[in-house]
């Protein structure tokens, strides 16, 4: 599917504009069917966007927020994406939103994925908004090059839900929504910042296997148009 690049003069300008776009999309979904959903990424890039979005005056009590992926750590662990969302997005007006975590206290990451899949099924499909990030290795969500379940994660026929991923570059074992869960969001955003990430994107947009740079699966096969938000 096609992608559109939205470039901004600064990260602050990007955060404000993306927050406006997402707030409008969530409000339109609420107007249309009484509820809305958004899956966001962790990492360092989205913090300013989360903070900007949290101040928007929309019907947050009708919004469900979840994560695109999560490290297999509890929410009080510094590596937790839940902790990042709690501290930066579930604040201000957005405090009223419902949050559905991916991490589940379970004996194994596989059991946690099974539990998370059941819980996430309540959110409804497709997501109204998905915000993806991208690592320097071309991963997105927890679709890491060399990942233990990468082929399954990227296979369009894999049922929607959460699967596990382990990879050298991932740190802890991961819990990640599958490609099939993310690729048809009403608003599908790739949010990246810095010259380095722009170079990684250019390489990803070139030829090569999806397994080498998994973001290629989104850029090449997502049902929804990919809105790329970039600032230096
Ligand atoms: O759990 C995570 O880390 C994210 O979901 C991951 O996919 C992230 O989006 C990229 O690694 C980019 O991270 P930065 O924004 O920190 O570069």
From TrEMBL:
Listed pathway(s): Carbohydrate degradation; pentose phosphate pathway; D-ribulose 5-phosphate from D-glucose 6-phosphate (oxidative stage): step 2/3
Domain Glucosamine/galactosamine-6-phosphate isomerase: 10-221
Enzyme Commission number(s): 3.1.1.31
Any one GO biological process: carbohydrate metabolic process
Record has Hydrolase as a keyword: yes
Catalyzed reaction equations: 6-phospho-D-glucono-1,5-lactone + H2O = 6-phospho-D-gluconate + H(+)
MF annotations from Gene Ontology: 6-phosphogluconolactonase activity
Claim: Hydrolase is one of the keywords in the record: yes
Record CDD domains: 6PGL
Pfam families to which the protein is assigned, alphabetical: Glucosamine_iso (PF01182)
Keywords: Hydrolase
Function: Hydrolysis of 6-phosphogluconolactone to 6-phosphogluconate.
Similarity field: Belongs to the glucosamine/galactosamine-6-phosphate isomerase family. 6-phosphogluconolactonase subfamily.
Full protein name: 6-phosphogluconolactonase
């Amino acid at each position: 599917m096609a992608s559109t690049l939205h470039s901004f003069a600064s990260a602050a300008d990007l955060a404000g504009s993306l927050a406006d776009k997402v707030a409008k999309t969530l409000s339109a979904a609420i107007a249309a069917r009484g509820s809305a959903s958004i899956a966001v990424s962790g990492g360092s890039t989205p913090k300013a966007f989360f903070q900007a979005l949290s101040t928007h005056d929309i019907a947050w009590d009708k919004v469900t927020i979840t994560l695109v992926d999560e490290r297999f750590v509890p929410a009080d662990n510094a590596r937790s994406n839940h902790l990042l969302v709690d501290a930066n997005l579930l604040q201000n007006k957005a405090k009223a939103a419902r949050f559905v975590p991916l991490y589940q206290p379970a004996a194994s990451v596989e059991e946690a994925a099974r539990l998370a899949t059941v819980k996430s099924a309540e959110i409804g499909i497709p997501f109204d908004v998905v915000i993806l990030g991208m690592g320097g290795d071309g991963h997105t969500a927890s679709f890491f090059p060399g990942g233990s379940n990468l082929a399954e994660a990227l296979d369009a026929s894999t049922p929607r839900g959460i699967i596990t991923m382990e990879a050298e570059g991932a740190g802890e074992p991961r819990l990640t929504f599958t490609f099939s869960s993310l690729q048809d969001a009403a608003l599908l955003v790739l949010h990246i910042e810095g010259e380095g990430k722009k170079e990684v994107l250019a390489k990803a947009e070139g030829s090569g296997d999806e397994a080498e740079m998994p973001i290629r699966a989104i850029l090449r096969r997502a049902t929804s148009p990919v809105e790329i938000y970039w600032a230096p």
